[in-house]
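For the sake of clarity, the format in which proteins appear in this thesis is described at this point. The record quoted next illustrates the convention:

___
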Amino acid sequence: MDQWTLQMGYPVITILGNTTAENRIIITQRHFIYDISAKTKALKLQNNSYLWQIPLTIVVGNRSHVSSEAIIWVSNKSEHHRITYLDKGSWLLGNINQTGYFRVNYDLRNWRLLIDQLIRNHEVLSVSNRAGLIDDAFSLARAGYLPQNIPLEIIRYLSEEKDFLPWHAASRALYPLDKLLDRMENYNIFNEYILKQVATTYIKLGWPKNNFNGSLVQASYQHEELRREVIMLACSFGNKHCHQQASTLISDWISSNRNRIPLNVRDIVYCTGVSLLDEDVWEFIWMKFHSTTAVSEKKILLEALTCSDDRNLLNRLLNLSLNSEVVLDQDAIDVIIHVARNPHGRDLAWKFFRDKWKILNTSCSKIYSKDILFHGMEKHCL
């Protein structure tokens, strides 16, 4: 266990098909790190002697059959193994149901076969395996081990996906990617591609509904989480119906002064409404932020205020965040973070952070110095 508890990080296993002999594979292991270029710069990361003893579970499959699970103990940097039933038309899957603490990469041919399997019949692979494939593919692409088109091709099957975990794995990877691409000339191609994958499931699941007494019509936890995930993707990437529904719910709240927005999508609706509608909606949310005493609701409302497309309102909020009578000291940094996540506020947040550095650092020190649990942390606030 020393390899897993004392060595930094975790490994990535790469499985390569042997082009000269059938049923043979090459398995390599290396230290997984997101910034490969950092490895050459930082002395601590240059240790190429890292080795783990890895229990690699594998199955072999094709369109009609999946083999029983086998286990290979990988102890060396590179190993050759013979795999039964592996031929040119078969794919290989490692780390079954994500039971091992490592990532798995494959040669491009195997990735293509797995993508084809997902598109033809994704249920041949378990929910955990589907989620794991998506998570590994996006992480490997982010780290430079894999071309970026592979994870984007994997999610082509998502319109047929009915389970929460694969959708969650995809959305968790897509939001950071969206932030990187939203300044690119061809961003619309990416945006439309994601909307296309989301559209079918969004229509199928619809929005959560309230009973006549105002309580939420309950479905299973997984179903509600899936619906929330899909609604968030749809609204974030600009689905017209999603935008219209969010605007209608906000407008109804303003006109009736009764909040009938289902609890589990309030953050999505608030943020979408603030970004789409006029300054009056921002002022309404600001008023509600002041009047509510519920801490969780207050946090959602404050985050929604950072979603505005109006740079003047974002600047105003950043400056108000320094007033501890308006925004609690510990929430001020959250305002900066969320404004920075907004494409319209990214540069504003960075300028504000630099200009107000001394004030923010002093404020942070005060927060920690008040709490005995964090005594001494004030030196390392920001």
